[in-house]
Amino acid sequence: RVVFGAVANDHVAALQDLNEREFLVLGLLAAAVLFMGLYPLPFTNVMHASVAELLRHVAVPKL
Q1: Number of domains in the chain
Q2: In sequence order, what are the residues at sequence separation of 6 or more whose Cβ sits closer than 8 angstroms to the Cβ of residue 44?
Q3: Is residue 30 part of a domain?
Q4: Are 59 and 52 in contact (CB under 8 A)?
Q5: In the prediction, which pLDDT does 15 show?
Q6: Residue 3 falls inside a structural domain
Q7: How far apart are CA 28 and CA 20, in angstroms?
Q8: How far apart are the C-alpha atoms of 13 and 8, rounded to whole Å?
Q9: Residue 7 — very low, low, confident or very high, per pLDDT cuts 50/70/90?
Q10: pLDDT tens profile 8-63
């Protein structure tokens, strides 16, 4: 409200902040994204075999 001023739309003004359940879900999703960013090895190991096969297929010369 400091930057944008007063709310001009009554429907937007009636909106409420996050409740505890929504805040918990948002926190869990943020923690999962942070974990995947810091420790990607368990997730990239799942894709390793298919990516290796794809690279082998692409590396074969067509001529």
Answers
A1: 1
A2: none
A3: yes
A4: no
A5: 84
A6: no
A7: 12
A8: 8
A9: confident
A10: 888 888 888 889 999 999 999 999 999 999 999 998 898 898 999 999 988 888 76
Three-state secondary structure string covering 19-62: CHHHHHHHHHHHHHHHHHHHCCHHHHHHHHHHHHHHHHHHHCCC
Of 21, 44, 40, whose CA–CA distance to 32 is shortest? 40
List the one residue out of 54, 30, 52, 32 whose CA is nearest residue 42.
32
Whether residue 36 lies inside any domain: the answer is yes
Which phi and psi angles does 53 have, rounded to 5°? -65, -40
Residue 57 and residue 51 in contact, taking contact as beta carbons nearer than 8 Å: no
Structure tokens at 28: 């869990």
**Given the structure tokens 């996050």, which residue do they identify?**
18
The whole-model pTM stands at: 0.59
Residue 34 located in a structural domain: yes
Range of the domain at 41: 10-59
